[in-house]
Amino acid sequence: KSIELSHKALNIAQKHKLLKEEAEVLLDLSGFYNKQRKYDTALESAQKALVIAKKLKNPRLEYRALGMLRDIYQKQGKYQKALEFAQKVYALVQKENLGLYKITTLTYLSESYLNLGDTVKAESAAKQALNIAKKSRNYNGEVLGLLRLTQVYKFQGKYEEGIETAQKSLQISRQNKFFIGEIAASVLLSEIYEQLGNYQKVIAVAQPYIIQARKINQRDKEAQLLINLGNAYRVIGEYTKSKQLIEQGLKIARDLKNPSLELIGLNNLGSYYSSIKDYQKALELTQQSLKIAKKLESPPLLISPQFSLGDIYSSLGDYQKSRDYY
User: Fold this and answer.
1) Which of 75, 142, 248, 273 is the most buried (most CB within 10 A)?
2) C-alpha span between 203 and 190 (Å, rounded)
3) Cβ–Cβ under 8 Å, residues 110 and 119
4) For residue 92, which of 53, 118, 124, 129 has the smallest C-alpha distance?
5) Closest Cα to residue 286, out of 268, 299, 300?
């Protein structure tokens, strides 16, 4: 219905040559198509809006269009293109002195750098965003900066620092009823506790937030929590529950056409089959996971499936292949 009404508005704007309104409606349409995972149509609308924004020399419209393009590429797992547009957004914000958007822009950059394995730049951008948010008392911005910093610390193996920043973001989110921030913090906390081997804490953190994520339609976060929880149950030997949870998370990842989530789900399902000693099934699923990771060209996403394949080949007695993957 929203798309239908937006197309009517677009026709009126085009008929009367209302360029600003046309660009705004095109961006609304791009957002709707992006949510429906119709990425080509979403890109087309955002690109048209960007052309109009530049023609009008309207920096705020240009900011929206560039940000939309970054988000579309990010959702498709095209991380190099997402970084390219994050850098364009940042350059625009600097040039036009759009201070209001600086925190969000820096978190875009941090996310993109981390996806490509550049933890130094990712950490720098996250800290800049966090400092600006603190100075301006922007609590939601502070949460975003803390979340990005937590992701960096997790990847760097600085787990104590990661727990500290995640707990801070969780606390601020609760105080300000920022539910999306609260759920995102729970995802990261559960992942760090998993890395530390504290599976009871993974369960304690992940389980209550699955329902919350579902209530506010944060399906990607719901999938991550389901997979994290399923993996924790696998390690403590509750295999039936583990398989059900991981498969639920994988199904959501596929419904969302989210390749990075899908490969995580496949890798964890492979670990489940490895745990019940069905190594051929484990191999099949983990190789699928690695194939997706290679397509995404994201170093952080390559680590888990390669490590899992090392474990599987070791269990099969093929120590040369095991060493190759390790």
Assistant:
1) 142
2) 8
3) no
4) 53
5) 268
pLDDT in tens, 245-281: 999 999 999 999 999 999 999 999 999 999 999 999 9
C-alpha to C-alpha distance for 127 and 107, rounded to whole angstroms: 9
How far apart are the C-alpha atoms of 29 and 26, rounded to whole Å?
Answer: 5
pLDDT tens figures, 27-84: 999 999 999 999 999 999 999 999 999 999 999 999 999 999 999 999 999 999 999 9
In whole angstroms, what is the distance from residue 178 CA to residue 292 CA? 33
> Residue 217 contacts by C-beta under 8 Å, 6 or more apart in sequence?
none
Q: What is the pLDDT of residue 206?
A: 96
The DSSP letter of residue 216 is T
| Cα–Cα distance for residue pair 89/263, rounded to 1 Å | 29
- Global pTM exceeds 0.85: yes
Contact 4, 25 (CB under 8 A): no
Buried b / exposed e across 276-287, counting CB within 10 Å, b at 16+? eeebeebbebbe
Find all residues with CB under 8 Å of 108, minimum gap 6, and list them: 67, 70, 86, 89, 90
**What span, in angstroms and rounded, lies between the C-alpha atoms of 45 and 53?**
12
Cβ neighbours of residue 86 closer than 8 Å, sequence gap 6 or more: 70, 105, 108, 109, 111, 112
Compute the distance between CA of residue 131 and CA of residue 113 in angstroms, rounded to an integer: 19
